[in-house]
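User: Sequence recovery, please. Input:
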């Protein structure tokens, strides 16, 4: 009969996975959970409600995660940015519609809308994100800003073709150009300079308030 001590010694040592491996394999705890919880809240509340939490976000490194986990995290990030951009575009479009006969009010809406863009760019430029991801996100955001500027002007051209007053359209076009969205902090004019982050991108027309965002996987 084998003594109890010997039986205990003969058992193979239990293999304990490092905490980081479990976190990256299952996506629980650690930096992953901190970021995903933050992004869920930020997507709904924006920067005003999450400023303190933003300062505590841990550094993210793709080499710390399984590839599929990293892709899911980046998708959540681009999804949150896309959600905020859509909400911003909807609000701006509604404000411009309400200021249909008032160019001063339209110009004020354009200037005030830049605060929302700066909030989105702040997340895209967060220092805890890898540099290449920050570059890709900023490129995407800047591209959407430029695209909306073009969309707003193109809408005026279509409106005139549909019978709108050309004088009003020219006045509104002048307002758009005197208060360009592309002057939001850091807009670079390089909207197509880099490919989207893994699983990133937004397939929607930000100038059309009735449509909803579609985040591609």
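Assistant: Recovered sequence (217 residues):
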């Amino acid at each position: 009969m084998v003594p109890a001590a010997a039986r205990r010694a003969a058992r193979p040592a239990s293999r304990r996975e490092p905490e980081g491996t479990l976190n990256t394999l299952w996506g629980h705890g650690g930096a992953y959970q901190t970021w995903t919880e933050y992004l869920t809240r930020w997507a709904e509340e924006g920067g005003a409600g999450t400023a303190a939490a933003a300062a505590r976000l841990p550094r993210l490194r793709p080499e710390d995660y399984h590839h599929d986990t990293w892709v899911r995290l980046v998708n959540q990030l681009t999804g949150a940015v896309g959600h905020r951009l859509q909400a911003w575009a909807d609000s701006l479009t509604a404000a411009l519609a309400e200021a249909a006969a008032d160019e001063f009010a339209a110009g004020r809406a354009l200037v005030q809308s830049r605060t929302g863009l700066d909030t989105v760019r702040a997340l895209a430029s967060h220092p805890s994100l890898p540099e290449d991801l920050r570059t890709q996100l900023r490129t995407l955001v800047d591209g959407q800003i430029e695209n909306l500027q073009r969309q707003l002007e193109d809408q005026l051209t279509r409106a005139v073709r549909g019978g709108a007053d050309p004088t009003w359209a020219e006045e509104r076009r002048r307002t758009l150009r005197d208060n360009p969205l592309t002057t939001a902090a850091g807009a670079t004019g390089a909207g197509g300079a880099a490919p989207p982050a893994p699983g990133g991108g937004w397939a929607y027309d930000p100038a059309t308030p009735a449509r909803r965002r579609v985040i591609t996987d």
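Helices lie at 4-10, 19-26, 30-45, 51-55, 67-98, 103-124, 131-161, 166-178.
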